[in-house]
Amino acid sequence: MTNPVPTVRPRPTVAELPRYSRAAGLSQIRWRASSNESTVPPSPLVQKAIVDAAAHANLYPSLQGDQLVEDLSERLQVTPEQIVVGGGSLALLQHTLAAYTGAGTQVVHAWRSYEAYPILIGVVGATAVPVALDADHTHDVDAMLAAVTPATRAIIVCNPNNPTGTELPRTEIERIVTSVPDNVLVLLDEAYQEFATADVDGLSLVRHHPNVVVFRTFSKAYGLAGLRAGYMIAHPDIADNVRAAAPPFGLSLLAEAGARAAWSDIAHTDHIVEVVCDGREYLRREAARRGLKTPVSGANFVWFPVGSRALEFADACVEQGVSVRAFEGEGVRVTVGDRDAEDAVLTAIDSLDWQSARLERCAPGR
Ligand SMILES: *Cc1c(COP(=O)(O)O)cnc(C)c1O
């Protein structure tokens, strides 16, 4: 039976949006290294908090996640008015774009960077202005600043960058903040901040620059990707407008309880970070021994800039039981944190002939 097709049409910008890619072949794999999830399950405290909260699931949560906001405020040394919590940091980025950009405005971001950016920007009707990474797979700050026009309302900086793992030093972030006009928001996506090797911390900038917004998440270093919880820090005026642009009750009762428990268990987060740092050092070192150079990563993944060999490499990983994220013609992103999965990726590397890729991508001395 064929169902009738709707004749109602979405806004043209929505019809044209790229669709999120779905991790492929997950049923036949043993290890998921394609979505940057934590390989370590959440703290036992989280599981208990969620079960306890479930008994009250008949009730709405607080309007703005008040208790989680309190907890965050205390440790981050910012006022509750500066914090917005929600169902993942991506939702908060969406609400921020909805509040401050839209038709006729532009949003600058690096590319390759997080695949969600062009979609979120497109949804609100703004124009995405992608700026190519430099030869070191890092944000090209000069080119991004040059892309700012009178129509620019925001510039998104993914630090550390997904999928390359590269970090911008504080001086470069400061250069962006002091170079853009005051009416341009600087949106610092710090989803991987806890794993950074450099001094990645936009919070101090929020204090002195009212146009800076920092986004963080419980999805990575807190092991809560499935729960959906994130937060943003901004000037109280900006936070207020973002809350106004968001649907109420954005953080579920269970997500708030789980996030509060995860936030309280510092030792558990330290453990997740330790496992990740150990895994990425191992994978980068062993790949380098096999002739594959990778950029220093400040995140829970390693980027293999193998260019035209990306799909072939990803297939070889699946053959060894690991799903990874391939970007055709660019490279492959591998989430770390499970030694068996890392060894399977190394076996995949060994199964291919890298002579041509090495010549193509790794300039001498890099
Ligand atoms: C994983 C990730 C996020 C997290 O999004 P949530 O909605 O909080 O799960 C945000 N930004 C980037 C760049 C990411 O890679």
Please outline the helices and strands.
Blueprint: H1 12-15, E1 31-32, H2 44-54, H3 66-76, E2 83-86, H4 89-100, E3 106-111, H5 116-123, E4 127-132, H6 141-146, E5 152-158, H7 170-179, E6 185-189, H8 203-208, E7 212-217, E8 230-233, H9 236-245, H10 253-264, H11 266-289, E9 301-304, H12 310-319, E10 322-323, E11 325-327, E12 331-335, H13 339-350, H14 355-361
This protein binds pyridoxal-5'-phosphate.
Pyridoxal-5'-phosphate (PLP) binds at residues 36, 88-90, 114, 158, 162, 189, 191, 217, 219-220, 225, 230.
Written as H for each helix and E for each strand, in order along the chain, the element string is: HEHHEHEHEHEHEHEEHHHEHEEEHH
The bound ligands are:
pyridoxal-5'-phosphate
What would the average pLDDT be, to the nearest integer? 94
CATH architecture annotation name of the largest domain: 3-Layer(aba) Sandwich
For the biggest β-sheet, the strand order reads: 2-8-7-6-5-3-4
Question: Share of helix among residues?
Answer: 25-40%
Number of domains: 2
Structural class: alpha/beta
How many beta-strand runs?
A: 12
Kindly, what is the distance between the CA atoms of the first and last residues, rounded to a whole number of angstroms?
59 Å
Oligomer: single chain
> Low-confidence stretches at least 5 residues in length (pLDDT < 50)?
359-366
User: What is the rounded Rg?
Assistant: 21 Å
Highest CATH level, the class of the largest domain: Alpha Beta
Shape: globular
CATH T-level topology of the largest domain: Aspartate Aminotransferase, domain 2
Strand content: 5-15%
CATH superfamily of the largest domain: Type I PLP-dependent aspartate aminotransferase-like (Major domain)
Give a short account of the largest sheet. Answer: 7 strands, mixed
**How many distinct helices?**
14
